[in-house]
Amino acid sequence: MNEHISSAYDRDLEGITTLIMKMGGQVEEAILKAVKSLTDRDTELAEEVREGDKSIDALEIQINDEAARTIALRAPVSKDLRSLLTVLRLAASLERIGDYAKNIAKRTSVLVEMNPVSGSDVALRRMAREVEAMLKDTLDAYVRGDAELAEDVRQRDQEVDQMYNALFREFLTFMMEDPRNITPCMHLHFMAKNIERMGDLTTNMAEQVIYLVTGDMPDEARPKGDKTAYVTDAG
């Protein structure tokens, strides 16, 4: 790529990176607001999260269009092409995380009509804060080209899985103790699962950052802590 084209490519990539960071900021905010709407029983905030997802979706489309235009005009190769493919994958994961935040907000509108389940709100908020911190670090790692920070995020997904396991067992216990808890606990379980999936997607993003920086995907299988498939009782 000659110097003139290279400079144009750099400007294009800088613009797309700005869009990724804007999208990431909106997704971080959606995660925290979605859980806050549950803990505060705030249906207006839940509706705000649902409406905000349209802006997240629009940013993904804009990023896809800008990346496609840059590939067509600059014909990048090697790491330049890898950079553009990475932003496409990051944008796709962010869009899915935004969808999970919207799903949580939808269930909040149902749960506000039911009695709270003791301790669950605090546990969900703690889990969401951990995922939001992982996402923030992943975006920082992307901007700084920091594979070490991205690997740290990858390892932290196991903590989110363990939080999910603990919540899963608590919900089983509550449902066994009182059948009236079944409906709210099912909604809360799906919320916890949404947050656990956000952690998985954030970890996928961290792996893409590692690939962008080093040219290789991590060799070792990702440490997983979700053991709910093997739970046979709530004890």
In short:
The protein is an all-alpha fold and 235 residues long. Helices cover 82% and strands 0% of the residues.
Please describe what this structure looks like.
This protein has 235 residues and is mostly helical. Helices cover 82% and strands 0% of the residues. The longest helix is centred in the N-terminal third of the chain and has 37 residues, at 3-39. The model has no long low-confidence stretch (mean pLDDT 91). One of its GO terms (biological process) is intracellular phosphate ion homeostasis. Belongs to the PhoU family. It is found in: Cytoplasm.
Strand content: under 5%
Number of helices: 6
Output the structural class: mainly alpha
Number of strands: 0
Radius of gyration, in angstroms, nearest whole number: 20 Å
* Head-to-tail CA distance between termini: 62 Å
| Helix content, binned percent | over 70%
In N-to-C order, the SSE pattern is HHHHHH
* Rough outline: globular
- Uncertain regions spanning at least 5 consecutive residues: none
Please describe the biggest sheet, giving its number of strands, its sense, and whether it closes into a barrel.
Answer: none
Mean pLDDT: 91
In terms of topology, how is this protein built?
Layout: H1 3-39, H2 43-74, H3 78-111, H4 120-144, H5 147-177, H6 182-214
GO cellular component, one term: cytoplasm
Subcellular location: Cytoplasm
Family: Belongs to the PhoU family.
